[in-house]
Design goal:
By secondary structure, this protein is of the alpha+beta class. The chain is 26% helix and 26% strand. The protein contains three helices and nine strands. The protein has a five-stranded antiparallel beta sheet with strand order 5-6-7-8-9. It has a two-stranded antiparallel ribbon with strand order 1-4. A hairpin with a 5-residue loop joins strand 7 and strand 8.
């Protein structure tokens, strides 16, 4: 009997697909002396699909992959009123939770990149807004400045 494709994705199915992809990627990576990493689902639309980031690389001494976004953020955070440990920090804006994913110095007005935790969609913020929200001082009504 032929198995019919699902009409809609579910969070459980998305998680299972991520697990299966990571398992397969690890086999391929080990074959070539590398390690593999699969990111969290992004741009989730349960009616049509989602994205997963797959990375291969040479393991650092601690067994993790080098993250260029984290390295850039850690070097430049002070210039934007943030601290290196703010990479990956979560904050609330307009009633929604966001996670800091990077910093883009080529966007002087909105240099902070963040993803909405609910669906992984990318947004950009001013550094002042993020610094205030991380300090617990910012108004929570102001929302994200723009989607990527």
């Amino acid at each position: 009997m032929t198995r019919l494709p699902p009409r809609n994705l579910t969070p459980t199915l998305c998680a299972k697909l991520r697990e299966d992809l990571l398992e397969a990627a690890k086999v391929v990576a080990e074959k070539h002396g590398l390690i593999a990493e699969v990111g969290e689902p992004r741009d989730i639309d349960l009616r049509s699909g989602f994205e997963l980031r797959l990375r291969f690389g040479i393991a650092l001494p601690d067994g993790t992959l080098f993250e260029p976004e984290r390295a850039l953020f850690e070097v430049m955070a002070d210039m934007y009123g943030l601290r290196p440990e703010h990479f990956g920090a979560e904050f609330v804006s307009n009633g929604e939770c966001f996670r800091i994913t990077g910093l883009n110095p080529n966007r002087p007005r909105y240099p902070i990149s963040a993803e909405r935790i609910f669906d992984g969609r990318n947004f950009k913020f001013t550094s002042e807004n993020v610094a205030l929200k991380l300090a617990g001082l910012g108004p929570f009504e102001t929302g994200a400045e723009g989607a990527d």
